[in-house]
Each structure stands twice: as structure tokens, then as C-alpha cells.
What does this fold into?
Amino acid sequence: MSLVIDTSVYIDRYSKDPTRKNLAKKLFNLAEKLIIYEPRIFIIELLCVLSRKTTNFKSIINKIEEKINIVNEEELFDTARQLAPLVHGRAIDLYFIATTKLTNSILITCDKLQAINAKKAKIQAYYLIKEFSKTTNKIKQLIKHS
It folds into this structure.
């Protein structure tokens, strides 16, 4: 099984909040042992946020791009369009939810509303901030069985 990790988790790796930064770092230490999928728009969202936080954003993006698999935009759009009436969520979140559905993955996010909306679409999703132990236990289980 694979993962889709929302931009919010990547951003927390560079957070000034030590608790959130620590959670994200620990998650990625485990998650990097699995396949990670992202929608193409993820790169743009990450660029927008990181370019406000650090001057080193280009090299950070390049390193991340080496470790992820980008999902085809055509397939994503069609899946997001089908899910939109069910989820009623934000468009960007729908792309992550659609990526998760298409790749039969698990969604990990630091966005509570996104996690709630993913579950409406019958997606296995974890709100990292409140479900850290549950999330890491699931990832360890996936690693063990991969």
C-alpha cells in the first residue's frame, strides 16, 4: 500500500512550532520507506508556501520531487469531479482525496477538514496532529507487509 501526504504535512517540516515540526519529521522518516503519490498541483502549492518561508525552497522542492510519484492530471480531474458532490470540500483538497482514491492509498494530513472530507469519500485518512500514534502504527504495519 502507498501514501498520499498532504502539503500541510510537508509544510510542518519547516514549521517554527517544534511540536508540529517533530511530528512531521518522524512521519517522513517512516513514510519514505513506502511509495508516496501526489497530485501535480502539490508542487505549485508547496512552491507558493515554501517560497514565503525559506530562500532554499528550490532545492527542497527538487529533493521532494525525487521521492514522490506524480499522478496523471486527466485521471485526477475526472475522479475529483465524481467526488465533488459527495465531499463538498475545497477544490485543492479534492485533488489529494482523488489521488488517494486513484492510487488506493492512505491520506495523511494536518488539515482536520480534509481528513473529515476524505472519510466522506470512504478514504482511509489520518489527521496527523491528533492521530500521530495511530498513523505511525499504520505505516509500520504497511512497511512490515510490503
User: Anything to note?
Assistant: The chain has a mean pLDDT of 95. Residues 3-144 form a domain with the Rossmann fold fold (CATH 3.40.50.1010).
